[in-house]
Design goal:
Number of helices: 9
Shape: elongated
Strand content: 25-35%
Distance between the termini: 23 Å
EC number: 3.5.1.47
Strand order of the largest sheet: 1-2-4-3-5-16-6-15
Radius of gyration: 23 Å
Order of helices and strands: HHEEEHEHEEEEEHEEEHEEHEHEH
Number of strands: 16
Protein name: N-acetyldiaminopimelate deacetylase
Pathway: Amino-acid biosynthesis; L-lysine biosynthesis via DAP pathway; LL-2,6-diaminopimelate from (S)-tetrahydrodipicolinate (acetylase route): step 3/3
Pfam families: M20_dimer (PF07687), Peptidase_M20 (PF01546)
CATH architecture of the largest domain: 3-Layer(aba) Sandwich
Organism: Loigolactobacillus backii
CATH superfamily of the largest domain: Zn peptidases
CATH topology of the largest domain: Aminopeptidase
Bound molecules: the ligand CC(=O)N[C@@H](CCC[C@H](N)C(=O)O)C(=O)O
Amino acid sequence: MTLTTKALTKIYEDLHQIPELGLQEHETQAYLLNVIKRLPQTNLKIKTVETATLVLVAGSVAKKTIGWRTDIDALPVTEKTGLPFASKHPGMMHACGHDLHMTVALGLLAYFAEHQPKNNLFFLFQPAEENASGGKRLYDSGALDDWLPDEIYGLHINPQLPAGAIGCRQGTLFAGTCEIHARFHGKSGHAAYPHLANDMVVAGAYFVSQLQTIVSRNVNPIEAGVVTLGQFHAGTIGNVISGEAKIDGTIRALTQKMNRHIQRRVQTIAEGVALAFNCEVELKLNQGGYYPVENNPITTKALIDFMQQEPGVNFIETEPAMTGEDFGYLISKINGTMFWLGVDQPYQLHSEKLAPNEAAIEKGVAAITAYFKQRDQTLA
Ligand SMILES: CC(=O)N[C@@H](CCC[C@H](N)C(=O)O)C(=O)O
């Protein structure tokens, strides 16, 4: 059953309205299962693991298994798109396009549920891409073992590319990331008696300032790195010295080596600030499964060669990006390729105003279906 443009649009708009945070994607999973169970079932096997959904399309003469992964979680962002199908879940939004990723996956699955491939196709609807290494959790738990694909593909929407364009590159597509969680503990007190307290606003401010030196002074200028601190909470009122500071951020680098180098510098600076301010620091550096997305040379050549010659596909060779993806962990275990799907937007990923151009859905489904058909023949 090939899903029509109208059906795909409805799925996208329905999913957009029910964003859920990582590992809590129950309504999303129920919606996905409802669509999947209405497809021709003859060649389908369906499994759920917590909020993940795994589907195998059995091939007619299977020698290999080709995988497709979509993420399904949303972000704690309050939507401000003004769309008629805006989020119904307060404080949550599909601001990273996972609703569109799921729709493309369903379009692809629907086609192959009706047109049996020679090889097996494996579809993974994966929770918690944004915050809890959903891909790593599933892989490490053995949940994929029965249907482990020989190669795996996935996409991410890209607001900067024209709607429906496919963007990819050999080598690293996305950075490896690492979350920074720093907690400084000093001594609170009266604003008038700083000598009797230990002010964590000041200690935290030094930590923030000193981290700015990592990229400028410790990263080789011809390589790349990012240290962003997105949250700093300390204190309650202007005339009370705060004894606590809570700072969270993220590291980005295009190689694991550079990621670890930056992690070590963050650790050293945190310890140095604690020493200098005579306070305690608890520092958690959490990389989880957010390894650099290093595209496999063979699957990436196959995909790029195909997209470059396929009529109707606007293929664009892209630069590496500092966004992260736990797909990096999956393709450190399974050969595979991630690529961009353009959605032509003035707003960035994670913006409360992100409203992807829906024309990308049909173009994406068509391009990837055609690629999977060709890949299925090649691997037969
Ligand atoms: C595509 C995208 O936006 N991914 C996220 C992944 C977040 C990883 C982790 N929680 C971190 O912040 O380091 C991104 O922010 O790039």
